[in-house]
Design a protein that fits this description.
Elements lengths: L17 H5 L4 H35 L4 H48 L4 H51 L1 H49 L1 H6 L3 H36 L2 H17 L9 H7 L2 H29 L18 E9 L5 E10 L4 E5 L6 H7 L8 E6 L2 E2 L5 H6 L1 E4 L10 H6 L7 H10 L3 H5 L18 H15 L3 E5 L7 H14 L4 E5 L11 E6 L2 E6 L1 H7 L2 H16 L1
Parallel strand pairs: 3-8, 3-9, 6-7, 7-8
Antiparallel strand pairs: 1-2, 1-4, 4-5, 9-10
Helix pairs in contact: 2-3, 2-4, 2-9, 3-4, 4-5, 4-9, 4-10, 5-7, 5-8, 14-16, 16-17
Length: 592
């Protein structure tokens, strides 16, 4: 099938050599398994040849040559036994190669993903990682574990069978091969055309149905609350109907030619064709009845192996797609490590004329100069899209700045080893992330070597110890396992305990109380006060009253620092901060 060029600016679905490169580490074992599979396929033909040859001897000499007949019988038995042994060996080798491939591929992916900037994960999401590590590796696994040996067997057996048939009688063999070739030449292009025409529509329709399903499942409470059930179900039904229509069109386009090929090349059809050709040859005295035995024994089943090879084309295509995506993930540039590492002296964070842009887009930050002093709280406020989150995430090097520099303790963060930099910065995200493990281990992520007493002390400081003790197994309760149910505010306090245990000199809080109720917010604020003690603290805030007591407030607008100062100073300036403050105060009064 000819690969059509992708539109300008769009990457091709399949990159040449991606699959070959990916399986190169296990190529030796895989080649040996393929060789054994080829020998197994050749041996699988021997019993059929033995039956045909024994029959020819009996037709030609009757029972006067029992030794020759028994020799062919023994050859057939030996071929069947040898075929089984070789097939078992080939299967085991291919599965050994597959196990090693999956381990090596996933290990390489894990090691590489550990070096890429954290911003890549924020932009790509967990789905991209899951697709590469799980789905794509599984697609290639199918080809390595099964497809390579099956493909070899599917090619060797018909080739060996055709050689035997041409030796037996090249004229009948030519007519048998011509029959199969004509059918494939007429019908196979229609199948390929249907694949090319419908594959993109199928992927699009499947993606839309997935989105509609996730939307329906994740938002079912909101959907029912606001009476949007009918509209949402209609969107889901529309996506399902479209996928069904694409599948019907696709199956209608390739189903008929596929069924025709399966019917016309089935053993029953081949038997009819070979019998007709043989009858003609015998009737015209071009060949004896014994000449038909090889074709009746061997030729009847040969096309079915060819059809199996054709079906493996889809597995090969899937493996190529998976290998291409894995290659692109592995091509993501790692975060540069310093050639000469520098250790920071202190916890002062400084932005020096910093600019940053996502890709080729407009700058998200430009000309930003600011200092975060040790032992103080700096608040970041501003309209949505002003660059607050970008500002905060540049400190732990989610991305590297486009211009200017950021220093920690006087050292450019690009010259600080990544592991040390991340150890000096604690990040409490707005969206809580807890692992499916015990409460103890979730807190211990902040410092894996911490003892149980230190974990409990961090939990007490985060105002969550009393809640943990009420869980069925206390600190050993597995979260997200049906019995470790915590509210949003309680889950946030677990992440704060993790940050307290980390004991990092720089703390970044990304609207940590955004989803908390008033009671939980008060407890979280107490925990945050403990977390920020004697540290350099940066707080991203949308609700201005939560940061009115900050030592410094930076007001961002369109990627620039529009204003800076304390709460009273900014209110007196009567600028953007004042407008944001009065706007929120008005909304609170309306709400009350």
């Amino acid at each position: 099938m000819t690969q059509e060029p992708p539109p300008a600016g769009q990457l091709p679905l399949v990159e040449a050599g991606a699959l070959k490169t990916l399986v190169r580490p296990v190529r030796g074992t895989l080649v040996l398994g393929v060789v054994l599979a080829g020998l197994s396929a050749a041996c699988a033909l021997v019993p059929y040849v033995a039956v045909a040859q024994a029959g020819r001897v009996l037709l030609a000499h009757g029972t006067s040559a029992p030794g020759t007949v028994w020799a062919w019988v023994l050859a057939g038995v030996a071929g069947a036994v040898l075929r089984s042994l070789l097939y078992v060996g080939a299967t085991q080798l291919c599965h050994y190669a597959d196990a090693e491939f999956r381990y090596l591929a996933r290990s390489r992916l894990a090691r590489h993903l550990g070096t890429v900037p954290l911003g890549w994960f924020a932009a790509s999401g967990s789905g991209e990682v899951k697709k590469a590590v799980s789905d794509d590796v599984r697609q290639v696994h199918t080809l390595v574990a099964h497809g390579a040996a099956d493909l070899t067997s599917g090619l060797v057996m018909p080739l060996a069978g055709m050689v035997y048939l041409f030796v037996a009688d090249w004229r009948i063999a030519l007519l048998v091969v011509a029959y199969a070739a004509v059918i494939l030449a007429v019908l196979a292009p229609r199948i390929q055309l249907g694949y090319r025409r419908n594959m993109d529509d199928f992927n699009t329709a499947q993606s839309e149905l997935t989105k509609a399903t996730v939307e329906l499942a994740d938002g079912i409470e909101v959907i029912k609350t606001y009476g949007a059930t009918e509209r949402t179900h209609r969107r889901f039904d529309t996506a399902a109907d479209r996928l069904t229509a694409v599948c019907l069109r696709w199956m209608g386009g390739i189903g008929r030619p596929t069924n025709l090929i399966n019917t016309l090349l089935s053993p029953a059809s081949m038997l009819v064709w070979i019998t007709a050709v043989g009858t003609l040859f015998v009737a015209r005295d071009w060949a004896g009845p014994a000449a038909l035995l090889p074709f009746l024994a061997v030729g009847v089943g040969l096309p079915s192996t060819v059809l199996h090879v054709a079906q493996l084309g889809y597995a090969i295509r899937d493996a190529q797609l998976g290998a291409t995506h894995i290659r692109r993930v592995m091509a993501e540039p790692p975060l540069a490590e310093p050639a000469v590492p520098v250790r920071p002296d202190g916890s002062r964070v400084a932005f020096e004329d910093v600019a940053f842009a996502y890709g080729e887009g407009a700058p998200a930050l430009q000309g930003v100069t600011a200092a975060l002093e040790p032992g103080t709280v700096t608040a970041l406020v501003g309209p949505s899209g002003s660059g607050k989150t970008t500002f905060a995430r540049l400190i732990p090097r989610f991305w590297d700045v486009t211009a200017g520099r950021i220093t920690l303790g006087g050292a450019d963060i690009r010259e600080i080893p990544t592991k040390e930099l991340l150890g000096r910065v604690a990040f409490v995200f707005q969206d809580v992330v807890l692992l499916r493990t015990t409460v103890r281990e979730n807190i211990r992520l902040g410092r894996p070597g911490a003892g149980d007493d230190e974990v409990e002390a961090a939990a007490r400081a985060a105002q969550i110890h009393d809640v943990i003790t009420t869980l069925p197994h206390g600190y050993d309760t597995v979260l997200q396992d049906g019995e470790g149910e915590l509210s949003g505010g309680e889950r946030q306090r677990v992440t704060i305990a993790r940050a307290i245990l980390q004991d990092a000199p720089v703390v970044i809080l990304d609207e940590a109380t955004a989803h908390a109720d008033p009671h939980s917010e008060a407890r979280i604020q107490q925990a945050l006060s403990e977390l920020g003690r004697e540290r350099t603290v940066l707080v991203i805030a949308h609700r201005l009253h939560t940061v009115a007591g900050a030592d410094q407030i930076l007001v961002l607008d369109r990627g620039r620092v529009a204003e800076r100062g304390t709460h009273p100073e900014l209110l007196a300036a009567n600028g953007l901060y004042t407008r944001l403050w009065h706007s929120q105060q008005s909304l609170q009064e309306v709400g009350q």
